[in-house]
User: What shape does this take?
Amino acid sequence: MSTQPATPRHVGLTGGIGSGKSTVARMLADLGAGIIDADQAARDLTGHGGRAMPAIAQAFGPDFIDAHGAMDRQRMRQLAFTQPEARQRLEAIIHPLVARATEEQAEAARIAGKALVVFDIPLLVESRHWPRKLDAVVVVDCPTETQINRVMARNALERETIEGIIASQASRCARRAAADAIIYNEGLSLETLRNQVRTLAARFGL
Assistant: This one.
């Protein structure tokens, strides 16, 4: 008589740009968690042959499709930041498809026997549907100036551009208010951060 794999814990992981969220996700993966990257799902959907591309082409026209048949991310980013209505149209196309893709990945993780599935979601707090699908929310937090310095060093973006991205995301206060657990990633060595992540993972069954 076969037995079904146990239902894993579903934990959302979020944090502002430059917070170190991706580093924490990699550490959780090393400890055996299944990681579902909502941003990567969106990139796949808007890449060449992605499931979102026909609707994006219809809604925004050929100027927003690059030479490879993928969404022109830079042009779309500029439009979305300056025209909230355009951003809402884009999200209405992408978000349902991301939800479907992540649900498929979560089921695959369950079948694989993962005890913990972590949903890496940059805009978790801004979302209406994600919180009710999760058992807990983990926020990776750090001061805004630290975010700016990290992203400037990593991506060579202008300060003004980074400040605009931060302003478009939920505030630190809103993210912390939504958290069941917070990792304060300021001035930590990688080993100290890893120890904090290990303690957190144990709390969620790893």
Q: What stands out?
A: The longest strand covers residues 9-14.
